């Protein structure tokens, strides 16, 4: 098989796998929600597949990914994807990469929806998504993934294989800011707000795991040995994190739960995302075990600090992304992968890479938190964020969408 054709086939399939993660996430979050808000959660996720592609084609791709003159933001050379087509000298490679990156862009704001479940106006969500993409996601992507490695964080030497910093840390920090401005659900934490359909959550976790192979292994941008390593690491990290999360639950609470199993899988997948192509299986196993255990502890922080992150986006995606990003500085192994990147502490690379990993993740996390906080404050003062008290009590399915998920 022609190498270029094989690479194209793999990346196109990977893009489809990542796209499939959005309805998987919708089921994962929807099952964790209360039944009266099921359709609203599905809609908050699925609307990202309507808004983000248009944004990406018009302005997102060109501002986030093009040009090497500066490390902060892209150019306006490819607005509306002008001059990008399949008959150019690259045989459509740039167009392929545009739409592969687009699938990452689609799922990132969808992650935030879990933090603000049960009380946000759907109209406010529609306004938030493109503005957040422009003000937060686009520059963060440029810092890490702009072409030629010209983003300022990448140029310093930080590593992010598949979006741990740009996707998970950025979305997790934004979720914390949004939840703080939006305020708690009425009755939380005194009233029980238990998941209404854990089978949906388990199915959603399975779909996410399936799609994550495209997320991580596809980020090799070739059907090669690095893709194989990323695939293997994705598999083992998800498995290890599920077990370590359940172990924490059993020791702490006396029970190993299905919600814990599903959450543990996702925590491991988040944790391995930034380092999937930078370490061997042993490193991925360690990352999974650490991410699963620490995220199981991190989800309880919302009760201590009284921020209502409804579906644990902060505890899983922010904590997991930070853990995985920092641990690259420990487990990065260029020798085992034949890569041209710095080695981690275990490989004798010293503390330089670890320092860069900490810097990159802190910078993106703080940037996302501050800008998101300001953005949602402005939205609250202008169009308003929260539904009315009676609408929240009745449920967002009927009050926001005039539908119900179930016939009683």
Mean pLDDT score, rounded? 96
CATH architecture: Orthogonal Bundle
Contiguous low-pLDDT stretches (5 residues minimum) are: none
Helix-strand category: mainly alpha
Basic shape:
globular
Largest sheet: none
Short description, anyone?
The chain is an all-alpha fold. The protein has helices at 3-32, 38-46, 48-65, 93-112, 122-145, 152-156, 164-182, 198-217, 225-253, 258-272, 281-298, 301-305, 313-331, 334-337, 352-382, 389-394, 396-401. Helices cover 68% and strands 0% of the residues.
Overall description:
By secondary structure, this protein is mainly alpha-helical. The protein has 17 helices and no strands. The protein has a single domain, classed as Ammonium transporter fold. α7 (164-182) packs antiparallel against α13 (313-331). The mean pLDDT is 96. It has helices spanning 3-32, 38-46, 48-65, 93-112, 122-145, 152-156, 164-182, 198-217, 225-253, 258-272, 281-298, 301-305, 313-331, 334-337, 352-382, 389-394, 396-401.
Write the layout of secondary structure elements.
Elements: H1 3-32, H2 38-46, H3 48-65, H4 93-112, H5 122-145, H6 152-156, H7 164-182, H8 198-217, H9 225-253, H10 258-272, H11 281-298, H12 301-305, H13 313-331, H14 334-337, H15 352-382, H16 389-394, H17 396-401
Helix pairs in contact: 1-2, 1-4, 1-8, 3-4, 3-5, 4-7, 5-7, 5-15, 7-13, 7-15, 8-9, 8-10, 9-10, 9-11, 10-11, 10-13, 11-13, 13-15
């Amino acid at each position: 098989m022609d190498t270029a054709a094989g690479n194209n086939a793999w990346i196109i399939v990977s893009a489809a796998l990542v796209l499939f993660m959005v309805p998987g996430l919708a089921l994962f979050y929807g099952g964790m929600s209360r039944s009266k808000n099921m359709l609203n959660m599905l809609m908050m996720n699925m609307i990202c597949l309507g808004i983000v592609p248009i944004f990406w084609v018009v302005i997102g791709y060109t501002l986030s990914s093009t040009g090497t003159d500066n490390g902060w933001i892209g150019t306006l050379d490819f607005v509306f994807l002008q001059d990008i087509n399949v008959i150019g000298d690259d045989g459509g490679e740039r167009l392929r990469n545009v739409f592969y990156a687009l699938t990452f862009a689609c799922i990132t704001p969808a992650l935030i929806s879990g933090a603000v479940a049960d009380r946000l106006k759907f109209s406010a969500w529609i306004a938030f998504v493109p503005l957040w993409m422009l003000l937060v996601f686009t520059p963060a992507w440029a810092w890490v993934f702009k072409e030629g490695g010209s983003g300022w964080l990448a140029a310093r030497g930080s590593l992010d294989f598949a979006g741990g910093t740009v996707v998970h840390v950025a979305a997790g920090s934004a979720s914390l800011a949004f939840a703080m401005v939006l305020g708690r659900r009425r009755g939380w934490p005194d009233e029980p707000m238990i998941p209404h359909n854990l089978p949906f959550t388990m199915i959603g976790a399975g779909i996410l795991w399936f799609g994550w192979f495209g997320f991580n292994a596809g980020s090799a941008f070739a059907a090669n040995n690095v893709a194989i390593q990323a695939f293997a690491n994705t598999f083992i990290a998800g498995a290890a994190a599920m077990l370590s999360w359940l172990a924490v639950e059993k020791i702490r609470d006396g029970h190993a739960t299905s919600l814990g199993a599903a959450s543990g899988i996702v925590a491991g997948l988040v944790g391995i995302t930034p380092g999937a192509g930078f370490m061997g299986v042993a490193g991925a196993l360690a990352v999974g075990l650490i991410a699963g255990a620490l995220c199981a502890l991190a989800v309880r922080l919302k009760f201590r600090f009284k921020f209502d992150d409804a579906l644990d986006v902060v505890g899983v995606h922010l904590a997991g992304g930070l853990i995985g990003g920092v641990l690259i500085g420990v487990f990065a192994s260029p020798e085992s992968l034949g890569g041209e990147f710095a080695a981690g502490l275990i490989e004798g690379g010293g503390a330089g890479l670890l320092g860069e990993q900490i810097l990159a993740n802190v910078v993106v996390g703080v940037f996302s938190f501050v800008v998101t906080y300001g953005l949602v404050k402005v939205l609250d003062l202008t169009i308003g964020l929260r539904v009315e008290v009676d609408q929240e009590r009745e449920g967002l399915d009927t009050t926001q969408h005039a539908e119900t998920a179930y016939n009683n």
